[in-house]
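Teaching assistant's notes for section 4

Start the section by putting this record on the projector. Ask students to predict, before seeing the second block, whether HD domain-containing protein will look compact or extended. Collect guesses on the board.
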Amino acid sequence: MTPDQTIPQLRALFDQQGQDPYFGEPVTQLEHALQCAALAERAGSDNDTVVAAFLHDIGHLLPVESAEAYMDGYGTVDHERLGADHLRALGFSEKTAVLIENHVNAKRYLVTKFPEYDARLSDASRQTLAFQGGPMSADEMVAFEANPYFHEILALRRWDEEAKEVGFETPSPDYYFVYCRDHLSR
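Reveal the predicted structure now:
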């Protein structure tokens, strides 16, 4: 698929569901994505990471086959893997996919490593944690820490938690679709 085919497909997902509430939070799906990308950009992140921040929850926007695929009103079970696999198939980089695929693992890791982190989670993030495997085991933590993108994954998680603010000023979706086009054109 070329960028000229891929970008309209991504745009359509946001057009169809971007104004839906972001599961128990005071922002929409699109506002959350834009805020996360803006935070990544403000931190001086590379293209792969800004794109991952923008598209990290794309798995929530993809069609699912059954009601069992939902987390009691909190989105799609395994959305991180579904989104990463979808973006790999569209030609996005492995780094972008790995960041997306692991942003839930980062929450599981942080809750385990820093018990006080749980108190910083929104109610919705706490609710989804049980569907997402709960705290990590010691072996899972060791494997997660060995990921070559460990620090970027933790940063993405931090932006994910922060990107729930009403009235947060961001660039338009078109601005981040240019990031995606540039990413796919490399």
